[in-house]
Write a structure and sequence with these properties.
The protein is of the alpha/beta class and 463 residues long. Helix content is 37%, strand content 19%. The protein has four domains: 164 residues, 3-Layer(aba) Sandwich (Alpha-D-Glucose-1,6-Bisphosphate, Chain A, domain 3); 81 residues, Alpha-D-Glucose-1,6-Bisphosphate, Chain A, domain 3; 102 residues, 3-Layer(aba) Sandwich (Alpha-D-Glucose-1,6-Bisphosphate, Chain A, domain 3), CATH 3.40.120; 77 residues, Alpha-D-phosphohexomutase, C-terminal domain (TATA-Binding Protein, 2-Layer Sandwich). It is built from 15 helices and 18 strands. Catalyzes the conversion of glucosamine-6-phosphate to glucosamine-1-phosphate. Keywords: Isomerase, Magnesium, Metal-binding, Phosphoprotein.
């Protein structure tokens, strides 16, 4: 069961959010079968009580292939698979947590383009797998773990359990105030042709909102293409066209959401965290007035939160890091600027649909518009994000060894000093080098962004 032919031993298999890559390249049926086998072996060894593994997927054309292949690997270890079909990632996490399952798997590449796919793993509590367990699965794929196959020919079964998705509906509604409804609210939903196409419109309709849906069918060749949480132009136009109160854009697996207010302004995860955090703080439901976010969070957000008497902790990018710091610190609310929000008052997973419902609840109780709430929150520093695509991950891996780039970063940091921030990092899921610069002055941020881009393009192997 060694998998050495599938990937370079020098390249980590698990990134910031599971395994991700182009379908048919790394993510083949043969690879997924072996991954399922070793995931089954490791998860069985980590749980004293046997149980099934939950599998859900998004709408990508390759998701059926990967879901059934990894299910085959799992059943070869004697584990039953409960297959949910099309559903959001937080649905898989929730069902895993409340059932006797020993783990959960979501087949999705989140916000990535249609040709990509990914495999996300959850432990029995519905939390992303720890680095230690992920590494054990990798060791199995490399042939570094002992092989353990039952001699009893006890194979697992694949059981279709899409009825369990109803439990996720109940969970979302249970977390709202009993008297809450969206009556009178006009809401636009950009469903990104992905995993939220059924659940999100249904629950907002049940809550009596007037719903306008964009990209509302499960189309795997269109998922995230010029839409969803990474491209809000269509949503902004639709909010104005339909004179809506607000709009929400989900990514392909609906574990994150970005909002647009009634004026068409984009409301990112920083503003969502600030508004939701302030609301929980006022209710006395935010321990230590603590928020956890990442190094990408805007400096204006941080200063405004501290002015309220709150504390903000930053982690590396990735909801796995946010989740770990929340558990360590006792924080109840955390998330990322990209719209991946986790609230332990209600669940253990980042959840775009739950976040959007909570924003609507907050608006109802504050009796004002989202634009007014944002206007009275904080002023974000101008922030420029720029992605430089490399030919492959191996060429990207050399960026830290580039002397010219490291010297350029030091020069930019010294020039901005306390009036701005700079972050250069490699993407954990794509062959991209991400440059983030924020400053009180936009022109300053733009200057140093262009400065670093020029160095990267001159000295490194970019496309």
């Amino acid at each position: 069961m060694s998998n050495q032919s599938f990937y370079s031993l020098n390249t980590p298999l698990f990134g910031t959010d599971g395994i991700r890559g182009k379908a048919g390249d790394l993510l083949t049926a043969a690879f997924a079968v072996q991954l399922g086998f070793w995931a089954g072996q490791v998860l069985k060894s980590e749980n004293t009580v046997p149980g099934p593994i939950i599998i859900g997927q998004d709408s990508r054309n390759s998701s059926d292939m990967l879901a059934m292949s990894i299910a085959s690997g799992l059943t070869s270890t004697g584990i039953d698979v409960w297959y949910l079909g099309l559903c959001p990632t937080p649905c898989v996490a929730h069902i895993t947590n409340i059932s006797e399952a020993i783990g959960g798997i979501m087949i999705s590449a989140s916000h990535n383009p249609p040709e990509d796919n990914g495999i996300k793993f959850f432990n029995a509590q519905g939390i992303k797998l720890s680095t230690a367990i992920s590494q054990k699965i990798e060791e199995g794929l490399r042939g570094e773990l002992p092989l353990s196959i039952s001699q009893e020919n006890s194979w697992g079964k694949i059981l279709h359990k899409d009825n369990l998705i109803n439990d996720y509906y109940d969970f979302l509604k249970r977390n709202l105030h009993p008297s809450f409804n969206c009556r009178g609210m006009r809401i636009v939903l950009d469903l990104a042709w992905g995993a939220s196409v059924n659940i999100a419109p249904d629950i907002f309709n049940q809550l009596e909102a007037t719903v306008f849906s964009l990209n509302g069918e499960p189309k795997g060749d269109l998922i995230n293409v010029n839409c969803g949480s990474t491209n809000l132009k269509l949503l902004q136009q639709a909010v104005k066209k339909y004179k809506a109160d607000l709009g929400f854009a989900f990514d392909g697996d609906a574990d994150r959401v970005m909002a647009v207010d009634n004026t068409g302004k984009i409301i990112d995860g920083d503003f969502i965290l600030f508004l939701w955090g302030k609301y929980l703080m006022q209710k006395g439901e935010l321990p230590k007035n603590l928020l956890v976010t990442t190094v990408m969070a805007n400096l204006g957000f941080e200063k405004a939160w501290e002015k309220l008497g709150g504390t903000l902790i930053r982690t590396p990018v990735g909801d796995r890091h946010v989740q770990a710091k929340m558990l360590e610190s006792g924080a109840k609310l955390g998330g990322e600027q990209s719209g991946h929000i986790i609230c332990h008052n209600y669940g253990m997973s980042g959840d775009g649909i739950q976040t959007s419902l909570q924003i609507c609840s907050l608006l109802q109780q504050s009796e004002t518009s989202l634009s007014k709430l944002v206007e009275n929150s904080f002023k974000a520093y101008p922030q420029i994000l720029y992605n430089i695509r490399f030919k492959n991950r191996n060429s990207l891996s050399h960026w830290k060894d580039c002397t010219a780039l490291q010297e350029g970063i030091q020069i930019a940091e010294q020039a901005m000093k306390y009036n701005g921030r700079l972050l250069v990092r490699a993407s954990g899921t794509e062959p991209l080098l991400r440059i983030m610069i924020e400053s009180e002055c936009f022109d300053t941020a733009q200057y140093w962004t262009n400065y670093l881009i020029a160095i990267v393009e001159k000295h490194l192997d970019v496309i």
